[in-house]
Each structure stands twice: as structure tokens, then as C-alpha cells.
Amino acid sequence: MNGAQMHALVERLYPLCRSITGNGVRRTLEIVGEHIPLEIFEVPTGTEVFDWTVPQEWNIRDAYIADASGNRVVDFQQLNLHVVGYSTPVSARMTLEELRPHLHTLPEHPSWVPYRTSYYAPNWGFCLAQDTLDAMPDGEYEVCIDSTVEDGSLTYAEHVVPGQVTDEVIISCHTCHPSLANDNLAGIAVAVALAQSLDNPYYTYRFLFMPGTIGAITWLARNHERIGKVKHGLVLACAGDRGQLTYKKSRRGDADIDRVLRYVLRERQHKVVDFSPYGYDERQFCSPGFNLGVGSLCRTQYAGYPEYHTSADNPDFVSPQAMEDTLAVCREAFSVLDRDRRYVNLSPYGEPQLGKRGLYDSLGGRSDAKETQMAMLWVLNFSDGEHSLLDIAQRSGLPFDSVAAAARALQGASLIKE
Amino acid sequence: MNGAQMHALVERLYPLCRSITGNGVRRTLEIVGEHIPLEIFEVPTGTEVFDWTVPQEWNIRDAYIADASGNRVVDFQQLNLHVVGYSTPVSARMTLEELRPHLHTLPEHPSWVPYRTSYYAPNWGFCLAQDTLDAMPDGEYEVCIDSTVEDGSLTYAEHVVPGQVTDEVIISCHTCHPSLANDNLAGIAVAVALAQSLDNPYYTYRFLFMPGTIGAITWLARNHERIGKVKHGLVLACAGDRGQLTYKKSRRGDADIDRVLRYVLRERQHKVVDFSPYGYDERQFCSPGFNLGVGSLCRTQYAGYPEYHTSADNPDFVSPQAMEDTLAVCREAFSVLDRDRRYVNLSPYGEPQLGKRGLYDSLGGRSDAKETQMAMLWVLNFSDGEHSLLDIAQRSGLPFDSVAAAARALQGASLIKE
Amino acid sequence: MNGAQMHALVERLYPLCRSITGNGVRRTLEIVGEHIPLEIFEVPTGTEVFDWTVPQEWNIRDAYIADASGNRVVDFQQLNLHVVGYSTPVSARMTLEELRPHLHTLPEHPSWVPYRTSYYAPNWGFCLAQDTLDAMPDGEYEVCIDSTVEDGSLTYAEHVVPGQVTDEVIISCHTCHPSLANDNLAGIAVAVALAQSLDNPYYTYRFLFMPGTIGAITWLARNHERIGKVKHGLVLACAGDRGQLTYKKSRRGDADIDRVLRYVLRERQHKVVDFSPYGYDERQFCSPGFNLGVGSLCRTQYAGYPEYHTSADNPDFVSPQAMEDTLAVCREAFSVLDRDRRYVNLSPYGEPQLGKRGLYDSLGGRSDAKETQMAMLWVLNFSDGEHSLLDIAQRSGLPFDSVAAAARALQGASLIKE
């Protein structure tokens, strides 16, 4: 899946009204399922998941504010951000003054519509441009939200790429945001493309498409026994804007995923930030009871761009090139992670004689030792069970690929073992 | 006690002739006792304290060098620095040449009188201005030191502010210097004001007023069984000059007191220096057998100003503002230390649902998360029994007060425990 | 042995045709043995040493390429670098075209002759200046290499300076390079001078003169049981060029030898580099099965100068002053290492009373504490069994000599013990 294809997927998913539950999520997963096979999970309202309870399901068919002439001045059909997520149903006539406490605008960006939700406190409201509000005369309006908040279920999906081992890497992205492109349709698109690109990986890769917070908590609660298998993970969000890449470290700070991402990003313009307990679902994976080696990859970070959580985060805000670049970093990172293992030198007393195995030049005295030979010496010397190939690549300054190739050659010659 | 009151205390204590023993110390402690209740300890001459023995007690009534006309050219009544501390009694007539080996001056500051002692080697001497010496004609002088060095006792005092726990913080200042204002009457004054300001602290605070070296060693020898209770400590000295604050770390270097002081000083002009086995009584508290978490707070450090140990260290050399500033840092430091504890998150699997407990805004989607909410997320995530609230404040960049308030709220909601 | 004498030794050894075996090595050790007594070891061809086997012995009497007129255009008698080390015997006439695959030049330095070997793959060849090759007309040449490759032995030598303890320091230098002055006749000369200079050292010093790689591996294989005694070591190479000193750390990176060398070099222009598994015999001593605290001292490092492994590395390339400087650093380093021990304060509760032992001035109050007294306070405070005297010197900023002298005084007063 190239950048243009990822962008097309973003555009196709954009109009759907997603939330933490409901048919918008189901339809989104159907479309994703056209690209990669998904297993869909429905968790009933009322299910207890750690400290939380799966909420009632929200669905919405229509919503608007109409003026005295019956013109819809605010219309859900035009943009689903216009309704506060999880708004309870309303059908009423009220004056602008009565309506005002239910209206949300962004005065600093008067033409943009903000994104607001009220998942756990029953409420209703509209989000609109400040310009629109300013143009609304006093008087009476017809207010309609044709929604339901009823027992149902929370929907999430998994896509698994089996590996050579059952130890897992989880790739997670949130599916609960309505018409917001960078946050997080771009993350979904990159995850789909990444899943497609994996070819017989070492680790088992589990892709999680689920609503933020409650989805991750639900998944963790239902997969408690699997957590021991999760060795690494990455939360993908805001994967398509034109800013430079940002890697947010896991809570551990020195997990393998942290070291791999820093290594892969080292020659790109990028930013690395420490873990903080805010942002996306790394908050849950890195809660102290789990403390998983899960980092987060974004381009411009959460709340770091004005378009964040507004109608300006539309498909034009994300670019095919940026998504391709995010994908390339992911692919390189997991390629390194998949090969980054610790070996033990089976001939650790002095150097083994590489020459008699055809691994070393017979003509000595030259000052330009070859990278492949140097890589073998590095792997032999540091394969003491403590240093991984990535450690060796970083310490030696040699490319990871050369170090991994040297390890393969040495393993082939029975000079090292895993 | 404000800066003016601390300065008044310095001025009142200044004329007394203190030493490591004697009535000058007793009178000093009487005056301190007018401000805070003291328990006075008298340790008899000859008491063995570790490698040392409590020395004989020194008292002095008068001392002078009079010229041929009977004029006192050097007069203890004018300034007690004129006599070398612990001088043995003398009553003699001698020529200037005979006298000279017993005279101490500061040629580089010819109008200043130095401070000298000879506690453990019986000797006598006078300290005087180089200018005075230069003006003394050859000829005979009457030399008188009306002192006694006799069996008696070493005097020190404690003031205890009981805390919620019996674990202790010790605040120590030396009481053995005669007319020297910054070293250490300012330290005594700040200690008194600090003691008055403590209000139902968490730790038990023990203030120690005792002579340098032999006093600290005596206290340690007599309180060997208490040492296990001493969790933190601070030696106060040179607390009133106009220089910037200097914090000298404990020998451990990363004791709680070290981290707290560095935190509190971070936004002030200040200096932090590593532990060295010279200076004040941190030398004893941080000797390898004890290795206590005791740092030292000064303004300009020991021997770091020319007035150090001279008659120029008089009450004009210390300022009310500087003492108030030192006091403010101490109060803030102990306020942080008293609240800096480690908690354990009782709901560590994912985030607990703060909203249902009224601790989190119900309206989602905003990009300006509130500091109080952020502080709760930080405390929850890092309350794993390993990170203290100060760790969390430093890692999050949030004010310690916000972090401590979040911990209180979370403890109130039974989400964390100590 | 001063710089001039070391240089004379380099000049005397220079013409010999050394290799990893053979009579050139034996003659070299005879000459070294005129300066310091050596024990010579002969290890027969075919001896298995870890992953390697001691090879056949190579000896050479003559070699040349003669033109049609019988003129030797390339002549081993002029420069032994002209023959590829371990060349098998040849006696043939062949055209330049046939000869060319056996000729090695350095096009980037057309007047220099490179140094090449082929120890383990039977082969023959000549090294010559590019200028010489360019001047050789097409046509037939007489090619002669009068060498033997036969069962024999590998020769190495040890010189031991017994110490007060049987724990050992090894000093190693390679003896396998033919007419190359900096690499490594200068290293041999500095090692000889260093051995002569040691006078009743604390450690036992073992000097190893042996061929690179196979020699070190042979020594390690034959001394497996001694390795536990080897506490420190230094590989000497390239010890005489005019560049600044380079210290290459042991694989451990923080071995005592690493800390000592860094300390001794701190006030000189120098470079410290991390361990890498290439270079000289530190490769073997620091292989993961041994991981000894062995560093390497050079001036300009391996392959870091164009003259490396060429005929330009001749006696003019090394200077008496540079060898003296290398020697001075070695002597200072081993002087520190020999005295760098950990002590335990026998009076750790508070400071002991130094005054009553005559170790401290009786007159107090001065601000210019003496270095000797400060050094005693530092040694007392940090002699907790964990800090060595070098740690204390570095932490205090005091000269190591002062700290060591303080330790002697305190040990004499029974205040500390080893």
C-alpha cells in the first residue's frame, strides 16, 4: 500500500461518524477488513473492565440547529463534528440564550469547528464555528439530535500476523475519532499498510483497532493472560501530518522498542520525548501494573498543532508522502527489532580463526579492513549473552544490516548461538 | 521571626565570648532559650567520645597587652577575638620581641583582627591588627590573660519539634565561635526562626546547638542508638552574608535532602557543591561510620570570603534580607521533604476512571488538560513504590505543590496508599 | 635506558626479517636478551591452541626479481618488506604479465613499499614501489624466493619482574613485524626500558614478547591457569611516532588500568578511545572468554598514519623524544597502579583526633588548610573499602602522590588498614 493508497483509505473513512462505540466503528472496521482480515470483538454494555464499565452504545442518525425559517445553520449531515460525541437525544425549540451553554466554539480559530465528547456524563451539545455562532440572530431555534444511548456493545478488532515465535509485538491505533484525518485515520492507514508488508516475521504481530482509553482498557482486561507474551509494542497516531516524526518512549525508557526507534530515527530529523502519562493508549499499556515496552510514534505530537481536534484536521491536512515516511520508519524499525537478538560466542577464548572457515581475507597487512570482517569481529567479541546485535551496531558504528549479516554468517559457521 | 528580628538576635549574641566550652556558650544558649525551649546537656571533662576526650573547660574574664604607660594596646574587653581561644593564663612583663611569637595578624588585611584557637595544645596568644602591631614600639609590655582551663563540662542544647513520625531530621549549627556574625550567629538565628516556624511537621525535627567538631562528635557518641532514626539533616552555617546560596551535598550525594535542596534552589541563583570532608559538622555526620543524609546550607561557603574568621565578620556583614532568604529556602525545603513520600497505585492496571469520582472533567476533546488532572495522571502512573512525589514533580515538570495535592486527592479517593 | 638508547635498539633490530615464526624472531629476542633476561619458549608446529594450530615455521634466505640483464630490480637483501611474509619458495622465469598477480604496490604512495603477509594460505608474492613497477619493461624476469615453510616452532619470550604480590600486570608487545620501526620496534624498545626501570614493584610484572594474534593466543592457551592472577595489562604498540598519545580502553571500559591511564594522561594532549575488537593483542586478552583489564597504549593509533605498514615506517619515523614520553607515561601509570589500593578507616565514627597523633596543626582558625591535612581527611572519609586512593585523588582534586602519602601516614598511625 503506497502513500496514495493510504490517503485514499483516509478519505474513504473520513465521513463516518465514529465514537467509542456504535455503527460508525463497525463500518470503519468493515472497510479496514477489505484490506486485511480482521477478527471483530463485541463486548456488551455493562462488562466490568478493571476500574471501568463498558458504557452503553451510542448511535446517531441526524442532528441540527434550524433557524426560524427552518434553515439548518448547524448540520450533522454536513460534518459529524457538529455534535458533541455521545449527545443524548434532543428535540426542542429554544432561544439562542437557552441554547448557548450547549454550544462549543474555538474563538481563536473562528472558522473551525471543535471536536468535543461527553462519554460518561449524560449531556448534549453542538460544536460550531465561531463565525457561525456570531451570525446567529437571537430568537428561537429548532434543536434536534436524533441519537440513541442504549445497551449494546463496544466493538474492536484484531489482525494477527503469525511469527516464528509466539512472543508478540502489538501495534495499536484508536478508532474512536469521527471526521479527523490525522488523528487517527492516518494512523489506521499506516497500520493497515504495515500489516500488509510483514512477511514471515520473527515475532507475532498483533494489530489492534479499538477506541481510545476504554478500548485499550477493555482489551487489556480481556487479554490479561496474554500480556506476558507482549514483548514490544507501538501506538500509532497522528501519522500523516507534514511535521517531523516524534517518538515517545515507553515508561521504561530503555525498552528494546525505545532503542530500536531511536536507532532507526537517528539519521532523520526527528524528536524523541520521554514517556508521560497522557496522549494515546500508551497510557494504558504503560500503566504501572503492565509497564509494557510500548512506545508511541507520531509525526507532530498530540495537541502540538492548531488543527488538532478541529475540523481543520481533514484529509488535506495529511499527505501521502508523510504516511509513506511513517510507514518506512515502522518497517525499518520492525525489521531491526525482528533481527535484534543476543548471541553467545562458542569460541570465546581469543579470536576463532575465521580464515580457515573462509570468513577472512588470507592476505594480511592491509589497513583497510573490510566492513564484513570487522562486523564479524565485533559480533564475536560482544556476543556474551548481554549485548544484542543492536548494541553491537551502536557500539561499533557499523550498520545494523552488516552486523546482522555477520551474525548470520557466524551462526552458519557454528561460532555463535542464540 | 523576620529578618530584622534574626538580625537583632545576632547583634545580641555577638559580644559573648564563646568557645567549645565555657560560660559564653551557656549564656548564648540562655538567650536562644528565650525564643525556643532548649534542653541543655553538660558533658563532663574527661568523657570519652569515640576517638576524642571532652577537654577541660575554658573561661576568661580579661586579657590585654598594656604598654609602658599602662595603656591597653590590645584589649579583650574591646573585642574577644583578641585572645587566642583556649589561651592559658599569663601574667608577665615581656619585650615586644619576646611577645612576638604569641601575636597573630593578617598582613593582607592590616586593619582586621584574625580569629585563632589552640584547643588541644596548651598555649596562649593574642590576635591583633597588623596596623596595631606596626604601631607598637619596641620595649616592655604588660601581658595579662585572666583565664582558667579546668575540669568542667562541654555544653550543648537540643530543641525538638515532635512530628507525626519518630523519624528525625536534624538541624545543626555550631555555637563555638566568639564574635563572628556570619560564622555562625546567622546560622543560629536562622535555626531559631526555622524551629519557630514548624507547625505539626511530618518528621520529628531536632535542632542541635553545639560546638563544632568535639560537640558533634560528643552528640554522636551519646546518641549512637538514635542515629538509625535520623533520616535527613542539614548543617546551617554562614547563613547571613549577601552572597548567593551554596548547598553542599551529603557524602551520599543523592540523599533525599540533596534532591530536595537542589529542587528548591533550582530557580534561584545558587551553587551546589559535592561533599568534601572539610567545612562544618557535616564532616562528622557524613563520616563513613555514619554516612547520614546530611547536607549543609550556607550562603558564601567556608573560607570563600575574605572576612571569614576575622573581625570583619561582624553584624554589619550579615543582612536581614539574606537571613530571610536562607530561612525561606529552609522552610520550602522542609515543606517539600515533609510531603515527599512514595505511594502505591491501588488500581495499577490501566488508568482508573477518575471521572466517576469527580476528579476529571466530563467534557473530552480539549487540548488544554488541566494541571490538577495531569498531576493525578502522573502520580497514578509513577506511584509504583519506587518514585517519590519529588521524583514525579521533577519528571513531569509540574510544581511539587500540584503533585502533592494530587496525591492527597488520590489518597482521599483510595486510589493510592503510602 | 633513555630515548637515544631506545632509538639505537630500534635501529639495531630494524634490518632483521621477523615474522610470526622463524630465525628473525629468535635473533630479535637474543638482542632484547642483552638488555633484560628473557625466558624463551618454543612451541612446536601443530600444537593446538584454542581454535588455532601453531603453523609451520617460515625462514627465508634470499629473494629477488631480476630483469633480463640479471639486475635485481626487487631485492629482499635491500629491504625485507619486498617479500610477502610466509611466501612459499619460487624459482622461475616468467613474464611481467604472469608475475603481476604476485606484485603488491601502493599507488597512492608510489615510492613506498607496502607490507603484506599470507600466513595461513600458501602463496608467494613481492611488495614493491609503484615507481619500480612502472619502470619495469614487459618481458621475462627471473623470480626467486629462497624460503622454507617447514615444521618447526613458534618462538616467544617472557621477562618477569617479581613483585610483593603474585597478582600480575602483563605488558605485551608484538615481535612479528619485519622492517617496521614504529610498529613495533618502538613498542619493544619502550617495553625493555620499562622493564629495566621497575624497582621492587607491588605487582609482579610479566613482559611478553610474542608474535601478534597466534602468539597471544598461544600464550593464553598455555597459561590458562595463570589468567586469574592477571589483574591488569597493557599492550604497547606504535610507541615512537611524533603524534600524541592514544589510550585504547579495555573491553570493560572501567578497569583499573583504564582509570589509571586516563588519570595519568589528563594533563597531556592525548586521545582516549573505546575498546574495539581490532588492533593489537588486546583483541585476544579482551576476548569475551577472558575479558581482562588490558588496555593498549599507542601514539598515533593503528592505521592512523599513512606510513603504517609501509617502508616509510623506518627508524627516522620514530623519535627518541616520543619514546621517552611514552615511557614516562608508562612509568607514571604503573607507579599509580602499584599504590592504588582500597583502605578501611578503623575509626569511622566521626573524625579521629589527628592532632593528638601529631598529624594536624594545633593552631585552629586558619583558612588555608594544608594539602597534607586535607589529604588525610579525604582518605579517612572515603576509606570505606569501596573507594581506592585514585578514586579519592580524583574526587578531591588532590594529587595522587599527596593522597598516597596521606594513606601511608594514616596507616602508620593505625587509623586505616588495607
TrEMBL record, chains A, B, C:
Name the UniProt record assigns to this protein: DUF4910 domain-containing protein
Domain Cytochrome c, first and last residues per copy: 147-268
Cross-referenced Pfam families: DUF2172, DUF4910, HTH_47
Top-rank taxon: Bacteria
Record flagged with keyword Iron: yes
Keyword check for Ribonucleoprotein: no
InterPro entries noted in UniProt: Cyt_c-like_dom, DUF2172, DUF4910, UCP015244, UCP01524_HTH, WH-like_DNA-bd_sf
Coiled coil ranges: none
Swiss-Prot/TrEMBL keywords: Heme, Iron, Metal-binding
